[in-house]
Amino acid sequence: MKLPGTRPRFTAQSVLRLVCVLSFAWALWLMVAGGVDWLVFGVRIRSTDPIDPLFIGLAALATLTFLRWRARRLAERAIHGVVPWSTRIRSALPIAGILAVAAVTRFWAIGFGLPNPNCRPDEGAVAAVAGYIYSGHLVAGVYNYPSFFMIAIATAMWIVTRRVPALLGRFGVHPSIGSINTLLERITARLLSAAAGVATVWVLFRTATRLFDRQIALASAALLALAFLHVRDSHFGVTDIPMTFMIVLAFSRIVRLWESGAWRDLIVAGIVSGVAMATKYNALLLIVPASWAIVSGSGGHSPGHRVLRVVAFGGLMLAAFLVVCPGAIFDHQRFIADVMHESRHLAEGHGVDLGRGWIYHLTTTLRYGVGIPMLIAAAAGASMLLYRTPRKGILIAAFPATYYALSGSGLTVFARYMLPMIPFLCLTAGYAVCEVASAAATYVRRPHWASALATIGVLGVLWPSARSVVQFDRLLQRPDSRLVARQWIEARFPAGTTIAQLGPEGSYVFHNEPQEIQYRTVTSVEAGTEPRVVIVPSSPLLRDAPAVEEMSVLERNYDLVLSLNVAEDVPANVYDRQDEFYLPIAGFKGIERPGPNFRVYVRR
């Protein structure tokens, strides 16, 4: 007999949770140990394939999620009555439309620049680590970036190249899927990054719904869906957008912890925050809003007990990080050296000196990355929150304020460094727009106008950013100038021709990839050893001209045979000057396609 107010010890959900934990733990053990071969009570247990327990764990997790969703639906139905399907569909249409816009803008031109492997800086470094993990090395050996995103890339490639063919083979289907290559590495990383960008919009919507209401949540999600800098970097197969997604996901769990004070929410928030830090080290600053959520949130605990809970959160965060990045322990000297190198790189600058990030990011990165109207709305919303509901305002502002103070302290000011700020700016901007719209509707005694006024406000705030999104995606889908130059040269010169590629590596046309015609490439032009072809790049982003000696050799002994001008030097175009990406972040005037300008010379 079950006593009133008690819960049964074993339920379907508790059993499914146990299955999830055991399955994922077994799959992790098989991956780390490389398989097991045990003799237990005369019974041989042999397994080398982690994919089966992984699928069992995912199936149990999906079933558990469905049961919890069903329980919430039944509870809502008991309180509010049965909601017709037509009402549910109408209610879901706005967020579905926002997510569709977010997906189209992020997946549009996702294959830009390929098969050139270096059209986006840092994709090569990420792909190299992912390929190393794919080959079976869980300790990457390079720690400039933590491992989580690279593990995700390697897992996706492993499923595509190994598990899918094996599964289809059981049904007599044998697809021809080759081994990993540059194209597969880049496109897998970009697809995962774009998917993380879209998922960030959804998680922000859910978080804003919990913090405020559905109207503010829709406004915040719409602002993030078309935030230019977030859309731009969602095309790139690097760690920044996945890290931003994990930060927003961890923040959503911290909000739940702030509301409930429950140990279960603390454990989940700590683990997710640790995985976020394992995506990029900057996520360590999640400890700040988490500490505030524990100290100021619900629960009725004593001050000493709250301090212990903060310590427990930090321990869980560190433990989750170490599980994903075990090299921090097993290869701790290299780990510390790489982390310190990244810290010095942030402080000392990269290339041209643009000043401290505190000023540059505000006047350039965020000004053009989200637009001045959104910046003003975000600042107004944060001020309103801090004045009206200080506890909630501090919870929302804690991470972006701390992050901006740290990232702005250095001289390395890549635009992508501001990506973790953008969801929080969209959240407070959405709050400001909706509150102003509601106040205006009340003032004119037309409260039913609030939604329409909020929609107009969102569109007004979004206009500069949305315009940049369309201009950027339209240019990105055009063939890169490096591909145009490569095709022109390959059509005219046979394999073995000596070709000089001047300028920085990011502007190179040839990278000795298997799919290219194999030329002999050099990086300079010297009298007496002149190559047959010389490729000279130029761009408003590149201010360094070839050396005087090289130009004199070109003038004496070479003819200009191709002049490919794709980007004019227009003052209205604003570039991410420390990052070697050949499309601006604002202006887009006189730009024909991505990539640098080229002049191709042939020896007489």
Molecular structure report:
The chain is α/β, with parallel strands linked by helices and 604 residues long. It folds into three domains: 8-79; 94-113 and 186-476, no CATH class; 481-603, D-Maltodextrin-Binding Protein, domain 2, CATH 3.40.190. It is 60% helix and 6% strand. The chain has helices spanning 12-33, 51-80, 85-107, 123-134, 148-169, 182-211, 214-225, 228-234, 240-260, 263-277, 287-296, 303-324, 327-330, 332-348, 357-369, 372-388, 390-407, 422-443, 450-476, 481-490, 548-557; strands at 36-40, 43-47, 498-501, 520-522, 533-538, 558-564, 597-603. The strands form two sheets. The chain has a five-stranded mixed sheet. It starts with 11 loop residues before the first helix and ends with a strand.
Query: How many strands in all?
Result: 7
Run of helices and strands? HEEHHHHHHHHHHHHHHHHHHHEEEHEE
Which quaternary structure do these chains form? single chain
**Taking Cα atoms only, what radius of gyration do you get, to the nearest Å?**
27 Å
Number of domains: 3
Distance separating the two termini: 98 Å
Helix count?
A: 21
Structural shape: globular
Q: Strand sequence of the main sheet, in spatial order?
A: 4-3-5-7-6
In short:
By secondary structure, this protein is α/β, with parallel strands linked by helices.
Overview features:
two-stranded antiparallel sheet; 21 helices; five-stranded mixed sheet; D-Maltodextrin-Binding Protein, domain 2; 3 domains; globular; alpha/beta; 604 residues
Question: What is the strand and helix layout of this fold?
Answer:
Blueprint: H1 12-33, E1 36-40, E2 43-47, H2 51-80, H3 85-107, H4 123-134, H5 148-169, H6 182-211, H7 214-225, H8 228-234, H9 240-260, H10 263-277, H11 287-296, H12 303-324, H13 327-330, H14 332-348, H15 357-369, H16 372-388, H17 390-407, H18 422-443, H19 450-476, H20 481-490, E3 498-501, E4 520-522, E5 533-538, H21 548-557, E6 558-564, E7 597-603
Parallel strand pairs: 3-4, 3-5
Antiparallel strand pairs: 1-2, 5-7, 6-7
Helix pairs in contact: 1-2, 3-6, 3-7, 4-5, 4-6, 5-6, 6-7, 6-8, 6-9, 7-18, 7-19, 8-19, 9-10, 9-11, 10-12, 11-12, 11-17, 16-17, 16-18, 16-19, 18-19
